[in-house]
Write a structure and sequence with these properties.
The chain is an all-alpha fold. The protein is 67% helix and 0% strand.
C-alpha cells in the first residue's frame, strides 16, 4: 500500500511538472504572438503615415500647378485638340468586298527592326535614369528638376527600387 502511494505521488509530481512546462511554453508563444502583432500594427501605422505625407505633398504640388495654370498666359490654356474628321459616307456591309476587308488588315502592326540598322537609340527608363543620377550624388530636388517631374514621384521611385546588398 505504501509503495502504491509513493508511486502515485511520483506520477502526480511528474504530471504537474509536465503541465507547468506546457503552460510556460504556451505563455511564451502567446507573448511572442502579441509582440509580433504589436510590431505589425506599428509598421502599418508607419506606412499609413508615409502615404499620408506623400498624399499631402502631391496635393501641395497640385495646388501649385493650379496656381501656375491660373497665372499662365491664355495662349497655353487655349490649345486645341485635333479630332479626326468623320467620314460622311461609309460603305454598307453589302458594299464592302472581301478585298476591302483584306486590305484593312494587311498592314502589319509591328515592324521588327532590321539587322544592321543602327539608327535605333537605347532610351533607359525613368526609374533607371533616376537611380543612376542618385548614385552620381544628385539630390532629389535636382533629379526632379532635370527629369521634369515631381519630388514625390522621384522619392517613390527611389523607395521602391531594390536595395544593393
Amino acid at each position: 500500500m505504501e509503495h502504491m502511494t509513493t508511486f502515485l505521488l511520483v506520477v502526480s509530481f511528474l504530471l504537474h511538472g509536465i503541465m507547468l512546462l506546457v503552460i510556460f511554453i504556451l505563455f511564451a508563444r502567446v507573448k511572442k504572438a502579441e509582440e509580433l502583432e504589436m510590431r505589425q500594427k506599428q509598421v502599418a501605422g508607419e506606412i499609413e503615415e508615409m502615404f499620408t505625407a506623400y498624399l499631402l505633398e502631391i496635393k501641395e504640388e497640385n495646388e501649385q500647378l493650379k496656381r501656375w495654370l491660373n497665372e499662365s498666359p491664355k495662349k497655353y490654356r487655349n490649345t486645341e485638340i485635333k479630332q479626326p474628321k468623320s467620314h460622311e459616307y461609309r460603305k454598307t456591309a453589302k458594299e464592302e468586298t472581301h478585298s476591302d476587308l483584306n486590305k484593312e488588315y494587311s498592314d502589319p502592326v509591328y515592324n521588327p527592326p532590321i539587322p544592321g540598322n543602327n539608327d535605333i537609340e537605347y532610351q533607359p527608363s525613368l526609374s533607371t535614369r533616376v537611380v543612376a543620377m542618385r548614385n552620381e550624388g544628385y539630390t532629389i530636388e535636382d533629379i526632379a528638376r532635370k527629369m521634369d517631374c515631381g519630388k514625390t514621384e522621384i522619392e517613390l521611385i527611389l523607395k521602391f527600387q531594390p536595395q544593393k546588398m
